[in-house]
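Hi support team,

I've been running sequence recovery on a batch of backbones for a student project. Most finish fine, but this one hangs at about 90% for roughly twenty minutes before it completes. I'm not sure whether the input is malformed or the queue is just slow. I've pasted the structure tokens below so you can try to reproduce it. Let me know if you need the job ID as well.

Thanks,
M.K.
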């Protein structure tokens, strides 16, 4: 099924029926099921110059994104505006660097991070991870020649994303992005 890039699409994959909002583990199960759909993954157009994405419906009102990552592409430091989430790898490898600390969501522009809050993991095809509403991370494709493809799911649907810059232990809030900017 060919997709228009950067627009809504339906995956055709069944959404689990849940009573209530999906937990991070529910989102991870959903992302892993979509990541295992090889026909869907193969239909994602890949661009050697930048990330491509398709928005998908998620379980119980969640939103999901199928994302293609060319070699070297990354997100920069960001959060998910208070949404819980999960991602699963369909192809290739991504490196995730995250903070093992809950940051205040309002009232600051500059924070000095404590020692020992940095985490790093590499995730390859078939692997994934779930996280809560206070997760701050960056992700990138470390490969020099291979695209990566991943599936991300969020509940509630992303109300915004805060973007950060980081120099050493100093994290600076740079901008807030709104859903209308991702259409």
């Amino acid at each position: 099924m060919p997709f228009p890039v950067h627009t809504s699409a339906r995956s055709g994959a069944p959404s689990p029926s849940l009573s209530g909002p999906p937990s991070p583990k529910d989102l991870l199960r959903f992302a892993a099921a979509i990541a295992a759909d090889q026909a869907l993954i193969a239909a994602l157009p890949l661009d050697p110059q930048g990330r491509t994405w398709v928005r998908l419906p998620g379980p119980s009102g969640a939103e999901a994104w199928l994302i293609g990552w060319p070699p070297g592409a990354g997100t920069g430091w960001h959060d998910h505006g208070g949404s819980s989430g999960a991602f699963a790898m369909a192809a290739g490898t991504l490196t995730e660097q995250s903070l093992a600390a809950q940051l205040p969501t309002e009232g600051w522009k500059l924070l000095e991070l404590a020692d020992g809050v940095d985490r790093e993991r590499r995730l390859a095809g078939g692997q994934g991870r779930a996280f809560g509403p206070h997760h701050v991370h960056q992700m990138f494709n470390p490969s020099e020649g291979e695209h990566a493809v991943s599936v991300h799911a969020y509940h509630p649907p992303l109300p915004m994303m805060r973007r950060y810059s980081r120099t050493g232990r100093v994290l600076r809030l740079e901008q807030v992005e709104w859903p209308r900017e991702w259409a």
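--
Follow-up from support: It reproduced on our side and the slowdown came from queue contention, not your input. The CA atoms of residues 5 and 120 lie 30 Å apart. No action needed from you.
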